[in-house]
Structure formats: C-alpha cells, structure tokens
Amino acid sequence: MERRIVVTGIGTVAPGKPGTKEYWELISTGRTATRTISSFDATPYRSRVAAECDFDPVAAGLTPREARRMDRATQFAAAAAREAVEDSGLDLPAADPSVVGVALGNAVGCTTSMEREYTVLSDGGADWLVDHRYAVPHLYDHFVPSSIAAELARLVGAAGPVALVSDGCTSGLDAIGHGADLIREGSADIVISGGTDAPVSPITLACFDAIKATTPRNDDPAHASRPFDATRNGLVLGEGAAVLVLEELAHARRRGARIYAEVAGVGTRCNAYHMTGLRADGAEMADAITDALARARLAPDALDYVNAHGSSTRQNDRHETAAFKTALGRYAYETPVSSVKSMIGHSLGAIGALELVACVLAMRDGLIPPTANLHEPDPECDLDYVPLTARETRVDSVLSVGSGFGGFQTAVVLARPERETA
Question: What angle do CA 290, 172, 3 make, to 5 degrees?
Fold first, then answer.
C-alpha cells in the first residue's frame, strides 16, 4: 500500500510580525505588509518597495552565536522550524534520528551575508582583489546554500536524508514535493520541509531592476502589489520562511497527532522555452495541475480553492489564468482563486511554502484569503479572484501553483485525508 503523507505542524516567519498566528491575521484580513525598504538605502534603485519581516533572531529563540553564524535566510528557517515542530507535538529528541529528514527550498542562497561580506572584503568595492584577512570564519557557509538545510538538520536532529532544493520561485513547493517523496519511498517517516529566502538586498534589487520585473510604484507601497488588476506594473519583493512537518499518515495517527491536511498530489513541469518568458497558453502549468490532480485522485470539480502564483505581472497573471481554464475546464470559473502575494510580496524560494501554509489555514478555518488591491480586474483575467475581502466557505481540497524563472511550473494539491477520491 502506498504511504500517504500529511501535514502535522506549521511554522512561519512572514513579512510583518513573525509567527503563524500573525501571518494568518494579516492575510485573512486583507492587510498588506509591503512598504518602503528600511533595511538599507534603496534610493538609487528603480523599485524601492518590499515586504520585509520585522524579525529579531534572539527574540525568536536563537543564541547570539547562532544569530551571528547564520545568514538571515537561515535564521528565518530555524525560527519557522522551531514553531512547526512545537506545533506538531513531536518529541524529536526521542525519535530515531535516521527516520527524520529535511527538505528545504531556497532560491538565492545566503545573499544578505555574501553581499555584506563582499562589501567588507573589497572595502566597499574599492579593491578589485578582496582581502581575506577580514573574512568571518563561517564565510564558506554563506557561499554554499546547502548550509541552510544542514543548519536545520542540526537544529532538529535529523540524520536521515537532507537536501536543499533550489530551482527559483518554485523551490518551496518543490522541496515539499521532495519531502513527500522521501516519505513515500520509505526513506523517512518525518520530514521537516518548506522554503526560506531573504532576497531584499541591493544586489537582488539591481537584478530585478535590470529586467524591469519589479514595480516602480514607490509612492504607494501598501498598494504596489496588485495581481490580476489591470493597473499592475510588476512584482514586489518579499522575504520570509515557512516550514511544514510532513509525516507518514499511519505514523501520525499512532501518536494521535493533529492532522491539518494530506499532501495528496504534486505535479511539476518545465516549459524549456525562455529564462524569464512564459507561453501565453500556460500549457506546462496546466499539465502540472492535471498531473497533481491525477496523483491525488481528484476531479477538477472537487477543488474548493486555488492559491495562485499571482505575481502581479501581466505575463504571469494571464499565463496562469489560461492554465486554470485548460486544466480545470468550466470549473475554473466556479472555483475561488486568490493570491497572497498581494499582501506579502514575492519571497522567491520561500513563497511556495508560505502559500501552502495559507492553504492549510484556509482548510482549518474555512476562510479563503483575498487578493488585496484588486480594484480594476484585467478583462483577460476573468476568473473569481476573491477581491479585497476574505470569503467564508468550507475548504476540503486546495490547489497551490508556482511558476519560476527558467520555466519551472509546480502544482500541489492538499486535501483532507478522509476525502472521497475519483
């Protein structure tokens, strides 16, 4: 019999105040955490807004030594993991460490620390040859993104499979898919999985400025991210982390765990088309959705909610609208869709995991988070995007999708374990 995978714990560090309760309060009320960048002087850049986390690593439970050693993205992951494990009720120190794994998604590595250290070693860019004598002892850890997953494994005592998944904006979703596969194949019974990223930095801003992907709406940060709106003009960067405790269903039931949802199906595709461009018909995303539904043994009419990628770019919004219509048929017009990026921005490798936590909470509370700032719908985006205000309804199964540079397309279906399957 195939092993089934469920979510038994969740933890988040999201823009605004950290913590899952605070995250849910923000997005369920339709408030936004996007603001003028405060962590450095963004005056020289085209886009100067982002969704930043008000995060204190020591207050989040890290020691001063850990805070100094870890990159900001690693700090986020550690804090989210601690909340998730506590939420799950697992006694990890008493567990067999060989059955505990880690699968973490990340897009841009330890960007914050790497940029800071380069600035120091090059004397603010004045020296072409950097002076290694000024390097911190753990600089190599910042250079190797896998150090983030290794730190998480050390934190939770995982001696099973440990991996960092890095394929751009779908990294968080793909890491959770990989974690589910580890349990399904019997390599682990418990996997601490999710995504983390801290890309709000000068180098990231410069990169996105170069391709004009981010919004120049600097005079109104709170309303700058507006997916599916005719007046949108680019994404808003974000940061943060979300960690989910994945567990084999029988293992969770034996210990009487609270089960949030089952990871019922995951589908992935790549369009092999363009580094940043998307095909207008959304065929590859539609294929990923169809595959995820087939693996979950659910028909399109069984979905109660779709959490969209909704990046607030014209190209993406139309691409995934077309994908929903292809994959779901007429039910695309009957299924509520929303984008939480309208409130927390786009945190690259972390966002897919943050969006899955939003889906879990939507199932728990019977409340679909809204698409904020959606006042003038794009006529070509003609689905039910739940504008401005959350919607109360029973949610038994959800679809969450991600689309990333390089052509990556991922779809994840969450459902109640006791659902009826097709």
Answer: 60
